[in-house]
Each structure stands twice: as structure tokens, then as C-alpha cells.
Amino acid sequence: MGTHVIKMPDIGEGIAEVELSQWHVKVGDLVVEDQVLADVMTDKAMVDIPSPVHGKVIALGGQPGEVMAVGSVLISIEVEGAGNLKESAAPAPLKEAPVAPKAEAVVESKPAAAAPRPAPVCQGPMVAREADERPLASPAVRKHALDLGIQLRLVRGSGPAGRVLHEDLEAYLAQGQSNASAPVAAAYAQRNDEEQIQVIGMRRKIAQRMQDATQRAAHFSYVEEIDVTAIEELRAHLNEKHGASRGKLTLLPFLVRALVVALRDFPQMNARYDDEAQVITRLGAVHVGVATQSDVGLMVPVVRHAEARSLWDSAAEISRLANAARNGKASRDELSGSTITLTSLGALGGIVSTPVLNLPEVAIVGVNKIVERPMVVKGQVVIRKMMNLSSSFDHRVVDGMDAALFIQAIRGLIEQPATLFVE
Questions:
Q1: Which residue from 28, 207, 308, 390 puts its CA 20 to 30 A from 380's CA?
Q2: Residues 195, 190: Cα–Cα separation, whole Å
Q3: CB-based contacts of 238: which residues, under 8 Å, 6+ apart?
Q4: Contact 125, 162 (CB under 8 A)
Q5: Comparing C-alpha atoms, which of 170, 187, 171 is closest to residue 179?
């Protein structure tokens, strides 16, 4: 028998230490080649580390949330034999989480005392677990299960290492096993359980960035009501005429176009502020960050050079980037370098929001939901589709009057959509 040692991978870019975000195995587990062992991350990168060998986990090198030096021992796996171990790097990650570069694990080998060789098979998904056992699942899946009244420990996980996915919850409900079949009285039973969740990994990075943004920037928000009836009619017409051949348009590519046109007169909004060097950099290129929710938290993929894109080009790029972020396939370059951010919760957008700046940017435009309301137009009460823009700015760089004029410019472009395309 031998021991296969996997070291903390070098993510690159001169990074000396990374955070151990989550284990997918425990001591005693049997693993196979390419099975995900752990999630590790740096400031802007999270990656799944796969096993390069079959064997049995005999030691873990750290605890979730621990910051470990690159090259330190991550995990030790007992394998058969000592002379046939791989000396090459471990396989590339099976799945890149948002902003994940390719990372390789460093492998070492050393002899170990003889012991019976475990059968190298993956742990199968479990239907029932111990009451105190915490099944693998993302925060979004845990919330989904809570909303549905489902105990995760009863759900069969089809993901790597038995991870419970959204599809597994749907399958569980389809089998008629949800708590909805329990007596109605159970819904009123007292509960005294508690759950402590470590703020680690991507959630900790998001928390740090949000805290940093609110502490460093002088936030102020400006809300304006916009009549989107005309642009919604145009969008419906274009989708009916060209949707089958060019793809369907949402409101977002129109808003990206409005940003591009408005920024011509308000270049101070398309800027980054280096508060340490006390330098404001205004950019000609408009790289629009589009805030996107994923299972690991809020990601901001970037539509590069929006100023050079048509409606359908922007729509296709927004869709591609959003899918990449949600599926954990977005690259570091796709999630960095924005000059201004557009954030929207779609139908859940509410009436008003107060977006937090995506530093070092100085402006973020928040989109609220569209509602039909009676409005007075030329002395007549008519039904119009209305929407609020809730936007935030860095008052160290942007004056209140300029912010108001900028949003009013966007309003004018949206309410008269032909002006979006008049040069």
C-alpha cells in the first residue's frame, strides 16, 4: 500500500495562499479518479479539486474556512502499491466555479504500512442519512428545500459525491414523498432547532466586497420612474418578426444600449476611482457588468465593448455569460473588468432598491419590476407600463445633479426608443 498526497494547488498570479471552502469527502471515504474532493478559492477564483487516483481518504489537511499556503498538504489518500503511483500533475478541475482558473494539484507519494485495499468505488447517493449528518448542497438548494418543507437528509443526491441538486428536490416531490402529505397539525408544531452556517468561500468574499464598497464609497441613490410602454411594444414587435431567426430580446439589451448612448454625454459615469492613488480613470470602452444570481452567490459577468454591439449581439452575450455564471463555467476574464454595472431581479425587482456599487466603479443602475398603472397622459387616464430605475453613485466622484441628469437621459431614450438608434 502507499499514500498519495495532494498539495494545495497554485492558482497562479503570484497568489501564496488560498482558502479551503468545502470538503466533499471525509476520512474513511472511498474515492475514484476524477471524483471531486474539495472546493478551494482565492480572492476571485473558486475551483473544485478532483482526485487523480482511486483509494481511501486517510487524512484531511485543513478545515473549511481555513486559509492554507500553496503547496501545503491538502489531503492524503491510501492507494494500492507504491511503485505505480503517478508522478505527474493531477487532472484539471472537473468543474470551474465562477471566476475559476485552471488549477492543478501537486502529487507526492510515500510508502505506507500494508493494509487491505478498499474497493475503489464512489460513494453512492443516499436516501436517508443520520439526523445530525449534513448533506452536500448549495445554499440555494438548501433554501429551496426549506421553502418546500423538505428535509434534505431524506433526498437522494445525484450530484458529485451525493450533492443534492434542484432536480433532486423536484424528483423527491414527484415521488409524493414531500412533507405535504404529513398531517396538517405538523405544520403548527413548535420548532427549537438551530443551524449555524459558516460564512466562508464565495459567500465570505461577497460579504467582504459589499462591506468594503459601503465603507469606502460615499453611496447615494437616485430613483426615477420610467414609462416603458413604447419600448415594450417595440420589443414585442421585434421578437415576433425576428425572434425565430435572431433570438428573443429581453429588456436588458435595450437598457445596455441606453447606457451606451447616455454615457456619450456623461463620461464621468463610465469610470473607475482609485481612492488610494486619488486618480479617476474615464474609459471610452463601455464594459457593462450584468449582476447575475448563481448557486454560489452574486456574480457580475461582463459584456465587453457594449458600445460596438447590436441589440441581438448584446442579448446573445448577456445570455451566454449568465448561463456560464450560473453553471460555474465563467472564466476570470469574463467576471472582471467592468466599467459600469446593470443589476436587475427581473419580476422580483420590487418597487425600489438601493444597489451597492461594484468598486472601483462609480455608478450602478438598478432595474425594478414592470407594473401596469393608471397614468395621466395629455389629460386622459390611461394604462401604462411603468418601471423604476434605482441607481447608486459614488458621491466622491459623481455630483447629485450629474447623476439625476444621467438617469433622465436614460429615461428619455427608453421612453422614445427610436432615439436609441439615431446617430
A1: 390
A2: 16
A3: 249, 311
A4: yes
A5: 187
- Within 8 A by CB and 6+ apart from 264, the residues are none
The residue type found at 142 is: R
d(CA 126, CA 133): 11
What one-character DSSP code corresponds to residue 164?
Answer: B
> What digits encode the pLDDT tens for the residues 258-278?
999 999 999 999 999 999 999
Give mean pLDDT, residues 161-175. Answer: 83
Q: Which long-range contacts (CB under 8 A, 24 or more apart) does 350-354 make?
A: 351/388, 352/223, 352/388, 352/390, 353/390, 354/219, 354/221, 354/390, 354/392
Cα–Cα distance between 353 and 258 in angstroms, integer? 20
Tracing cell 487532472 back to the chain, one arrives at 91
Separation of alpha carbons 350 and 212, rounded Å: 25
- 292-294 and 288-290: which strand pairing? unpaired
The rounded distance, in Å, linking the Cα atoms of 178 and 146 is: 11
* CA pair distance 262, 259, nearest whole angstrom: 5
Amino acid at the residue 286:
V
Distance from C-alpha of 381 to C-alpha of 338, rounded to nearest angstrom: 42
Going from the C-alpha of 100 to that of each of 11, 187, 333, 423, the distances in angstroms are 9, 42, 10, 40
Residues that are catalytic: 395, 399
Q: What is the mean pLDDT of residues 1-16?
A: 78
> Residue 378 corresponds to which cell in the numbers above?
395629455
> Where would I find the beta strands (DSSP E) of 136-263?
219-227
Confidence of residue 131 (pLDDT cuts 50, 70, 90): low
Task: Please report the DSSP string for 259-276 in residue order.
Answer: HHHHHTT-GGGSEEEETT
